[in-house]
Amino acid sequence: MKIFKHIIGFLLIIPLLTFGSTDTTPDGFLRDSVKEVSLFINENKEQLDKDDTFLRDKMNQIVIPKLNILLMSKIVLGKKNWVSSSSDQKKQFQEAFKGLMVRTYMKSLTTFDGEKMQFLPYKPGKRADVAKVKSVYLLSEGELPVNYRLKLNDAKWRVFDIIIDGVSLLKNYRSDFRDHIERDGIDSLISELKAKK
């Protein structure tokens, strides 16, 4: 489970660090990002390895803006819980969920190796603003299929889910969050997410 969680975090970082990419296609965005994040890691690896504050700041400055936190929040809470939450609860949950993503996956940034990624030929779907990009992560044991789901917002692609070997990152969170809300309510879930280190 720990290795699987690490792989999820590692793959989450791959497409999200981009420095001025001009490619407006979702697969182009991901391909450019693989090259650019490799350069970033090579230039900053020593500081990333030893300075958690620097690492956290980079996650917030570079990674988080590439995630569609609003859509992710709606998905992990589910329609019923999202609609029944107040505006303040929705805002607090988004902030707590964003913090959880930063804390959980920031260490994965330092282990990036872009040469292990291979993207499959991209096929546009029915909707122009939603895309699925398929790839494989090359492991010593074989190939691990990875699908990225992206949505176009303000002419920019943002990742909102990753499916690893058929398992959705958001569906895993959604199951845990639903059980917590049914048992203790959304305010309790928000407090627990904020308290996690």
Could you explain the architecture of this structure?
The chain is of the alpha+beta class and 197 residues long. It has one domain (2-195): Roll (Nuclear Transport Factor 2, Chain: A). The protein has helices at 2-13, 26-50, 52-63, 69-77, 79-84, 87-105, 169-184, 186-195, and strands spanning 117-119, 130-139, 142-153, 156-164, 167-168. A five-stranded antiparallel β-sheet has the order 1-2-3-4-5. Strand 4 and strand 5 form a beta hairpin. The chain is globular, with a radius of gyration of 17 Å. It starts with a helix and ends with a helix.
Task: Give a topology summary.
Layout: H1 2-13, H2 26-50, H3 52-63, H4 69-77, H5 79-84, H6 87-105, E1 117-119, E2 130-139, E3 142-153, E4 156-164, E5 167-168, H7 169-184, H8 186-195
Antiparallel strand pairs: 1-2, 2-3, 3-4, 4-5
Helix pairs in contact: 4-7, 6-8, 7-8
Short description:
The chain is 55% helix and 18% strand.
Q: Tags for this entry?
A:
197 residues; alpha+beta; Nuclear Transport Factor 2, Chain: A; 5-stranded antiparallel β-sheet; 8 helices; 5 strands
